[in-house]
Amino acid sequence: MNRRRGRARGAPGARRPGLLTAVPALLLAALLAFPGQLPDTPGHLGSLVETALPWFGAAVPVLLGWAALRRSVVGVAAALVPAVVWACQFLPGYLPGGDGARADFHVLTYNVGGDRTSPADIARQVTGTDADVVALEKVPASALPAYEKALGAAYPHHTTANTLGLWSRYPVSEVAPLDLGGAWPHAIRALIRTPGGDTVFYAVRLPSVRVRADAGFTVEARDRSAAELASRIGADRAARVVLLGDLNGSLRDRGLAPLARQLVSAQHDAGRGPGFTWPAAFPLVRIDHVLVRGLRATGATVLPDRLGSDHRPVLVGLRG
Protein backbone atom coordinates (compact mmCIF):
# COMPACT_ATOMS: atom_id res chain seq x y z
CA MET A 1 0.00 0.00 0.00
CA ASN A 2 2.78 2.47 0.94
CA ARG A 3 4.74 1.60 -2.20
CA ARG A 4 1.66 2.41 -4.35
CA ARG A 5 1.26 5.76 -2.61
CA GLY A 6 4.92 6.47 -3.17
CA ARG A 7 4.58 5.73 -6.88
CA ALA A 8 1.52 7.96 -7.08
CA ARG A 9 3.41 10.76 -5.40
CA GLY A 10 6.30 10.20 -7.74
CA ALA A 11 4.23 10.34 -10.94
CA PRO A 12 5.16 13.26 -13.24
CA GLY A 13 1.66 14.81 -13.01
CA ALA A 14 1.76 14.64 -9.21
CA ARG A 15 5.28 16.11 -8.96
CA ARG A 16 4.52 19.05 -11.29
CA PRO A 17 0.76 19.66 -11.37
CA GLY A 18 1.33 23.29 -12.36
CA LEU A 19 2.71 22.27 -15.74
CA LEU A 20 -0.72 21.01 -16.82
CA THR A 21 -1.95 24.61 -16.58
CA ALA A 22 1.23 26.60 -17.10
CA VAL A 23 2.08 25.31 -20.57
CA PRO A 24 -1.32 25.98 -22.21
CA ALA A 25 -1.65 29.25 -20.28
CA LEU A 26 1.64 30.60 -21.57
CA LEU A 27 0.85 29.43 -25.11
CA LEU A 28 -2.48 31.24 -24.88
CA ALA A 29 -0.76 34.40 -23.63
CA ALA A 30 1.67 34.26 -26.57
CA LEU A 31 -1.21 33.81 -29.02
CA LEU A 32 -3.13 36.78 -27.56
CA ALA A 33 -0.04 38.98 -27.58
CA PHE A 34 1.34 37.98 -31.00
CA PRO A 35 -1.47 36.59 -33.19
CA GLY A 36 0.29 37.88 -36.29
CA GLN A 37 3.04 35.29 -35.77
CA LEU A 38 0.61 32.44 -36.38
CA PRO A 39 1.05 31.05 -39.90
CA ASP A 40 -1.85 31.61 -42.26
CA THR A 41 -1.67 28.06 -43.58
CA PRO A 42 -3.39 25.74 -43.76
CA GLY A 43 -6.78 27.21 -44.61
CA HIS A 44 -6.02 30.84 -43.60
CA LEU A 45 -5.83 29.76 -39.98
CA GLY A 46 -4.15 33.01 -38.94
CA SER A 47 -7.04 35.12 -40.26
CA LEU A 48 -9.58 32.90 -38.54
CA VAL A 49 -7.80 33.11 -35.18
CA GLU A 50 -7.43 36.89 -35.45
CA THR A 51 -11.16 37.19 -36.19
CA ALA A 52 -12.08 35.17 -33.11
CA LEU A 53 -9.27 36.51 -30.88
CA PRO A 54 -11.44 38.24 -28.20
CA TRP A 55 -13.19 34.94 -27.52
CA PHE A 56 -9.93 33.17 -26.65
CA GLY A 57 -10.18 34.94 -23.32
CA ALA A 58 -12.94 32.47 -22.42
CA ALA A 59 -10.19 29.89 -21.87
CA VAL A 60 -8.77 31.87 -18.93
CA PRO A 61 -11.51 30.97 -16.38
CA VAL A 62 -11.19 27.33 -17.46
CA LEU A 63 -7.44 27.38 -16.80
CA LEU A 64 -7.90 29.16 -13.47
CA GLY A 65 -10.56 26.68 -12.39
CA TRP A 66 -8.40 23.71 -13.35
CA ALA A 67 -5.41 25.12 -11.46
CA ALA A 68 -7.58 25.79 -8.40
CA LEU A 69 -8.90 22.23 -8.44
CA ARG A 70 -5.32 20.99 -8.60
CA ARG A 71 -4.41 23.38 -5.77
CA SER A 72 -1.52 24.60 -7.88
CA VAL A 73 -0.17 28.03 -7.05
CA VAL A 74 2.08 27.85 -10.10
CA GLY A 75 -0.89 26.98 -12.30
CA VAL A 76 -2.98 29.88 -10.96
CA ALA A 77 -0.09 32.30 -11.48
CA ALA A 78 0.43 31.04 -15.02
CA ALA A 79 -3.28 31.34 -15.84
CA LEU A 80 -3.20 34.97 -14.76
CA VAL A 81 -0.66 35.78 -17.49
CA PRO A 82 -3.11 35.41 -20.42
CA ALA A 83 -5.73 37.15 -18.27
CA VAL A 84 -3.48 40.22 -18.03
CA VAL A 85 -2.62 40.09 -21.75
CA TRP A 86 -6.32 39.83 -22.67
CA ALA A 87 -7.14 42.76 -20.39
CA CYS A 88 -4.43 44.93 -21.94
CA GLN A 89 -5.67 44.08 -25.42
CA PHE A 90 -9.43 44.40 -24.98
CA LEU A 91 -10.42 46.15 -21.75
CA PRO A 92 -9.57 49.66 -23.02
CA GLY A 93 -12.37 49.21 -25.55
CA TYR A 94 -14.88 49.04 -22.69
CA LEU A 95 -13.94 52.48 -21.38
CA PRO A 96 -16.11 55.43 -22.44
CA GLY A 97 -15.10 56.67 -25.89
CA GLY A 98 -15.47 59.92 -27.78
CA ASP A 99 -14.50 63.39 -26.70
CA GLY A 100 -17.99 64.59 -25.84
CA ALA A 101 -17.96 67.11 -28.67
CA ARG A 102 -21.10 67.79 -30.66
CA ALA A 103 -21.15 65.92 -33.98
CA ASP A 104 -21.34 67.85 -37.24
CA PHE A 105 -23.34 65.01 -38.76
CA HIS A 106 -24.23 61.35 -38.19
CA VAL A 107 -23.70 58.36 -40.45
CA LEU A 108 -25.28 54.91 -40.44
CA THR A 109 -24.30 51.63 -42.07
CA TYR A 110 -26.72 48.71 -42.21
CA ASN A 111 -26.66 45.39 -44.06
CA VAL A 112 -30.40 44.88 -44.47
CA GLY A 113 -30.07 41.14 -45.12
CA GLY A 114 -31.61 40.95 -48.57
CA ASP A 115 -35.19 39.71 -48.54
CA ARG A 116 -35.16 39.26 -44.75
CA THR A 117 -36.47 42.80 -44.28
CA SER A 118 -38.96 45.15 -45.95
CA PRO A 119 -38.15 48.60 -47.38
CA ALA A 120 -40.87 50.30 -45.33
CA ASP A 121 -39.62 48.79 -42.05
CA ILE A 122 -36.00 49.66 -42.86
CA ALA A 123 -37.00 53.22 -43.73
CA ARG A 124 -38.78 53.67 -40.39
CA GLN A 125 -35.79 52.36 -38.43
CA VAL A 126 -33.25 54.37 -40.43
CA THR A 127 -35.11 57.67 -40.21
CA GLY A 128 -35.67 57.06 -36.49
CA THR A 129 -31.90 57.18 -35.92
CA ASP A 130 -31.74 60.73 -37.33
CA ALA A 131 -28.66 59.77 -39.36
CA ASP A 132 -27.69 62.26 -42.08
CA VAL A 133 -25.89 59.86 -44.42
CA VAL A 134 -26.93 56.20 -44.69
CA ALA A 135 -25.26 53.28 -46.45
CA LEU A 136 -27.40 50.20 -46.98
CA GLU A 137 -25.87 46.92 -48.10
CA LYS A 138 -27.34 43.75 -49.57
CA VAL A 139 -30.39 45.57 -50.90
CA PRO A 140 -32.26 43.34 -53.37
CA ALA A 141 -32.11 44.92 -56.83
CA SER A 142 -35.83 44.29 -57.30
CA ALA A 143 -36.56 46.24 -54.09
CA LEU A 144 -34.50 49.34 -54.92
CA PRO A 145 -37.49 51.36 -56.24
CA ALA A 146 -39.35 50.64 -52.99
CA TYR A 147 -36.33 51.75 -50.93
CA GLU A 148 -35.99 54.92 -52.98
CA LYS A 149 -39.66 55.74 -52.41
CA ALA A 150 -39.61 54.90 -48.68
CA LEU A 151 -36.46 56.91 -47.96
CA GLY A 152 -36.96 59.75 -50.43
CA ALA A 153 -38.73 62.16 -48.10
CA ALA A 154 -36.00 62.07 -45.43
CA TYR A 155 -33.08 61.65 -47.83
CA PRO A 156 -33.59 63.61 -51.05
CA HIS A 157 -30.14 62.69 -52.42
CA HIS A 158 -29.13 59.11 -53.15
CA THR A 159 -27.23 56.80 -55.44
CA THR A 160 -27.34 53.01 -55.88
CA ALA A 161 -25.30 50.30 -57.58
CA ASN A 162 -26.35 46.67 -57.59
CA THR A 163 -26.94 45.75 -53.92
CA LEU A 164 -25.55 49.00 -52.45
CA GLY A 165 -27.28 52.27 -51.71
CA LEU A 166 -26.12 55.60 -50.31
CA TRP A 167 -28.80 58.02 -49.03
CA SER A 168 -28.06 61.56 -47.87
CA ARG A 169 -29.67 64.74 -46.57
CA TYR A 170 -26.88 66.64 -48.32
CA PRO A 171 -26.09 66.97 -52.06
CA VAL A 172 -24.31 64.01 -53.65
CA SER A 173 -21.99 64.27 -56.66
CA GLU A 174 -19.05 62.56 -58.41
CA VAL A 175 -20.69 59.15 -58.06
CA ALA A 176 -18.66 56.14 -59.24
CA PRO A 177 -19.41 52.42 -58.74
CA LEU A 178 -16.13 50.61 -58.06
CA ASP A 179 -15.34 47.19 -59.48
CA LEU A 180 -13.12 45.54 -56.87
CA GLY A 181 -13.24 42.16 -58.57
CA GLY A 182 -16.00 39.58 -58.34
CA ALA A 183 -19.54 39.28 -59.59
CA TRP A 184 -20.83 42.75 -58.63
CA PRO A 185 -19.56 46.26 -57.81
CA HIS A 186 -18.42 45.98 -54.20
CA ALA A 187 -18.32 49.73 -53.50
CA ILE A 188 -19.69 53.14 -54.45
CA ARG A 189 -17.60 56.28 -54.19
CA ALA A 190 -19.43 59.61 -53.90
CA LEU A 191 -18.69 63.17 -52.83
CA ILE A 192 -21.16 64.57 -50.29
CA ARG A 193 -21.35 68.21 -49.18
CA THR A 194 -21.50 67.70 -45.41
CA PRO A 195 -21.69 70.57 -42.88
CA GLY A 196 -17.96 70.35 -42.16
CA GLY A 197 -16.99 70.41 -45.83
CA ASP A 198 -16.88 68.15 -48.87
CA THR A 199 -16.38 64.53 -47.80
CA VAL A 200 -15.76 61.44 -49.91
CA PHE A 201 -17.89 58.46 -48.92
CA TYR A 202 -17.32 54.83 -49.78
CA ALA A 203 -20.30 52.49 -49.36
CA VAL A 204 -18.89 48.96 -49.30
CA ARG A 205 -19.85 45.30 -49.18
CA LEU A 206 -16.84 43.04 -49.58
CA PRO A 207 -17.20 39.39 -50.68
CA SER A 208 -18.51 36.96 -48.10
CA VAL A 209 -16.34 34.45 -46.24
CA ARG A 210 -17.12 30.96 -45.01
CA VAL A 211 -15.48 28.27 -42.90
CA ARG A 212 -15.43 25.04 -44.92
CA ALA A 213 -14.04 21.64 -44.03
CA ASP A 214 -12.30 21.27 -47.40
CA ALA A 215 -10.97 24.81 -47.79
CA GLY A 216 -10.70 26.35 -44.33
CA PHE A 217 -11.44 30.06 -43.95
CA THR A 218 -12.34 31.18 -47.48
CA VAL A 219 -11.09 34.78 -47.46
CA GLU A 220 -9.24 34.95 -50.78
CA ALA A 221 -11.89 36.95 -52.70
CA ARG A 222 -12.49 39.29 -49.77
CA ASP A 223 -8.78 39.91 -49.28
CA ARG A 224 -8.26 40.74 -52.96
CA SER A 225 -11.16 43.18 -52.94
CA ALA A 226 -9.97 44.74 -49.68
CA ALA A 227 -6.49 45.26 -51.11
CA GLU A 228 -7.95 46.85 -54.27
CA LEU A 229 -10.18 49.13 -52.20
CA ALA A 230 -7.24 50.13 -50.00
CA SER A 231 -5.24 50.97 -53.12
CA ARG A 232 -8.02 53.22 -54.41
CA ILE A 233 -8.46 54.96 -51.05
CA GLY A 234 -4.71 55.45 -50.81
CA ALA A 235 -4.74 57.16 -54.20
CA ASP A 236 -7.78 59.29 -53.28
CA ARG A 237 -6.63 62.86 -52.72
CA ALA A 238 -9.66 63.80 -50.59
CA ALA A 239 -8.74 65.10 -47.15
CA ARG A 240 -11.97 63.79 -45.58
CA VAL A 241 -12.95 60.17 -46.21
CA VAL A 242 -15.65 57.99 -44.64
CA LEU A 243 -15.98 54.27 -45.36
CA LEU A 244 -19.33 52.72 -44.44
CA GLY A 245 -20.13 49.09 -44.86
CA ASP A 246 -19.91 45.36 -44.40
CA LEU A 247 -16.27 44.31 -44.72
CA ASN A 248 -17.02 40.69 -43.84
CA GLY A 249 -14.18 40.65 -41.36
CA SER A 250 -12.72 42.02 -38.16
CA LEU A 251 -10.11 44.76 -38.43
CA ARG A 252 -7.81 42.45 -36.49
CA ASP A 253 -7.89 40.08 -39.45
CA ARG A 254 -4.64 40.43 -41.40
CA GLY A 255 -6.62 40.36 -44.63
CA LEU A 256 -8.06 43.80 -43.81
CA ALA A 257 -4.73 45.26 -42.71
CA PRO A 258 -4.36 47.37 -45.91
CA LEU A 259 -7.54 49.25 -44.93
CA ALA A 260 -6.80 49.37 -41.21
CA ARG A 261 -3.43 51.01 -41.87
CA GLN A 262 -5.01 53.90 -43.78
CA LEU A 263 -8.24 54.58 -41.91
CA VAL A 264 -9.25 55.00 -38.27
CA SER A 265 -12.02 52.90 -36.75
CA ALA A 266 -14.83 55.00 -35.25
CA GLN A 267 -15.58 52.15 -32.85
CA HIS A 268 -11.99 52.12 -31.62
CA ASP A 269 -11.94 55.86 -30.99
CA ALA A 270 -15.47 56.56 -29.80
CA GLY A 271 -17.28 53.26 -29.14
CA ARG A 272 -17.66 51.26 -25.96
CA GLY A 273 -17.34 47.49 -25.74
CA PRO A 274 -16.46 45.14 -28.58
CA GLY A 275 -19.09 46.55 -30.95
CA PHE A 276 -19.99 43.14 -32.37
CA THR A 277 -22.54 43.30 -35.21
CA TRP A 278 -22.93 39.76 -36.58
CA PRO A 279 -24.95 37.58 -36.30
CA ALA A 280 -27.65 39.99 -35.13
CA ALA A 281 -29.34 37.56 -32.73
CA PHE A 282 -26.11 36.94 -30.78
CA PRO A 283 -23.23 38.97 -32.21
CA LEU A 284 -19.84 37.28 -32.13
CA VAL A 285 -17.72 39.52 -34.34
CA ARG A 286 -17.67 43.06 -35.70
CA ILE A 287 -17.82 42.96 -39.50
CA ASP A 288 -19.80 46.19 -40.09
CA HIS A 289 -17.58 49.23 -39.86
CA VAL A 290 -17.30 53.00 -40.03
CA LEU A 291 -13.73 54.01 -40.88
CA VAL A 292 -12.55 57.58 -41.34
CA ARG A 293 -9.71 59.82 -42.46
CA GLY A 294 -9.55 63.53 -41.72
CA LEU A 295 -12.46 63.42 -39.26
CA ARG A 296 -12.93 62.26 -35.70
CA ALA A 297 -15.73 60.21 -34.21
CA THR A 298 -17.68 61.76 -31.34
CA GLY A 299 -19.66 58.59 -30.62
CA ALA A 300 -20.21 55.10 -32.05
CA THR A 301 -23.16 52.85 -31.25
CA VAL A 302 -24.27 49.40 -32.41
CA LEU A 303 -28.06 49.51 -32.61
CA PRO A 304 -30.37 46.53 -32.07
CA ASP A 305 -31.87 44.88 -35.11
CA ARG A 306 -35.62 44.42 -34.71
CA LEU A 307 -36.45 43.71 -38.33
CA GLY A 308 -34.91 40.33 -39.08
CA SER A 309 -31.58 41.18 -40.69
CA ASP A 310 -28.57 39.05 -39.74
CA HIS A 311 -26.54 42.24 -39.12
CA ARG A 312 -26.90 45.06 -36.63
CA PRO A 313 -26.75 48.69 -37.77
CA VAL A 314 -23.96 51.01 -36.69
CA LEU A 315 -24.52 54.73 -35.95
CA VAL A 316 -21.57 57.14 -35.66
CA GLY A 317 -21.29 60.87 -34.99
CA LEU A 318 -18.50 62.65 -36.90
CA ARG A 319 -16.80 66.00 -36.60
CA GLY A 320 -14.19 67.71 -38.74
Automatic annotation (TrEMBL):
The keyword Secreted does not apply. Keywords: Membrane, Transmembrane, Transmembrane helix. It comes from the Bacteria. The chain crosses the membrane at residues 51-69, 76-95. Signal peptide: none annotated. Residues 108-311 form the Endonuclease/exonuclease/phosphatase domain. Gene3D superfamilies: Endonuclease/exonuclease/phosphatase. GO terms for molecular function: catalytic activity. This is Teicoplanin resistance protein VanJ.
